[in-house]
Write a structure and sequence with these properties.
With about 375 residues, the protein is of the alpha+beta class. It contains ten helices and 17 strands.
Length: about 375
């Protein structure tokens, strides 16, 4: 399905330190990998890494985007008497998933391990104990007893933190468990799709631009700057999708299921996809006998929300890998779904040409 080297790159990406605004380590992992099969690389001035693979023609220009930032935290204060750290979220966090979870705080002196905690439940009045603890009542404990000790470790206001969550393989290697799958999984799919173009000698009349975008979790920012530079003719955003096969979720709230194939997004709060491109992706999947699911997300968005409105507009679609428990310390996804996403994306690129892409927007 995937080579050991590919899975090792995904492991490194998952475990890398790269919350929104602090993505350099993750970008360097992508750079080292893609330079073996791409023709050229550049960065925009926000930090997104752009890597190009030429086909038999300069256009159409195809953009494959996957964001490398993960949800994390930024240190907002250090208590003088205890050394406990207050924090603000980088990206969307539910209060319910934070308590008792370990985090890594990156300082100028190195990484510091800590745990998110709050007032012990034994000391809470009953009314307070029965409520969800809010983030602004939580703190990160790094095992010190004063601000001075914390600062001696290197901790400063503005330092970032991410979940501590090792990458693990489950079910004989068919399922991945770890952090940052939103959206290192999508980045992985984009890289593997471009690698497949080279490894299998797939002929296509396009120039493909892979982009490891930054700061998606705080407003789709890297998508704006990179799309402005590339001026793509068509875009496929490679993402995770919310896997709805979790107790308490109704099918219409999250239609995708882990292990049932990649999803093709039909709607989210940031973008209504180009309908001709959506039909093209569905037909490609059916022609190649690739299992797929149609998905819809009523809230939230992806990099496509900015890319499809860049300059004069760009027909865009999102291909997702259904993933359980996103925006938490531990997510799970199926390698079979990821492999089929790679196949769908690369087969779409094979079929793109100037006439086809123009047909997405012609009237």
């Amino acid at each position: 399905m995937f080579t050991e080297k590919s899975i090792q790159v995904l492991r490194e990406l998952s475990e890398s330190f790269g919350p929104a605004g602090y993505e350099r380590e993750s970008a360097l992992i992508v750079k080292r990998y893609v330079q073996t099969f791409c023709d050229d690389m550049q960065t925009d001035k926000l930090g997104s890494l752009i890597f190009k693979k030429k086909g038999s023609a300069d256009s159409p220009k195809v953009l494959l985007a996957g964001h490398i930032d993960e949800v994390g935290f930024v240190i907002s204060g250090i208590d003088k008497d205890t050394g406990f750290l207050t924090f603000n979220p980088l990206g969307g966090w539910s209060d319910q998933v934070l308590l008792s979870q370990r985090v890594t705080v990156r300082t100028a002196k190195g990484d510091v391990l800590g745990v998110i905690a709050s007032k012990p439940p034994h000391l809470m009045p009953e009314e307070e104990a029965n409520k969800v603890v809010k983030k602004d009542h939580m703190f990160i404990d790094v095992g010190v007893t004063s601000r001075e000790e914390a600062e001696n470790l290197g901790v400063r206001i503005g330092d970032a933190a991410v979940p501590w969550s090792p990458f693990v393989l489950l079910r004989e290697g068919r399922i991945a468990m770890g952090k940052g799958f939103d959206d290192r999984t999508g980045t992985f799919v984009a890289m593997e799709a471009m690698k497949r173009l080279k490894d299998e000698g797939i002929n296509h009349p396009n120039t493909v631009y892979g982009v490891a975008t930054v700061q998606e979790e705080v407003g789709l920012r890297g998508a704006s700057t990179s799309a402005f530079l590339i001026e793509p003719d068509v875009a496929i955003v490679c993402e995770v999708d919310i896997s709805g096969d979790v107790p308490g979720i109704k099918p219409h709230e999250a239609p995708s299921r882990m292990g049932k194939g990649p999803s093709i997004l039909t709607f989210d709060a940031s973008m209504i996809p180009n309908q001709h491109l959506k039909k093209f992706m569905i037909e490609t999947a059916e022609q190649m006998h690739i299992p797929y699911q149609l998905s819809m997300v009523s809230r939230g968005g992806t990099d496509a929300g900015r890319i499809h409105m860049s300059k004069g507009g760009c027909p865009s679609i999102v291909v997702g890998v259904p993933t359980r428990h996103i925006h938490s310390h531990v997510g799970l996804f199926s390698f079979e779904d990821a492999a089929n996403a790679v196949k769908l994306v690369s087969e779409a690129i094979r079929r793109f040409d100037t006439e086809t892409v123009k047909g997405f927007t012609s009237i």
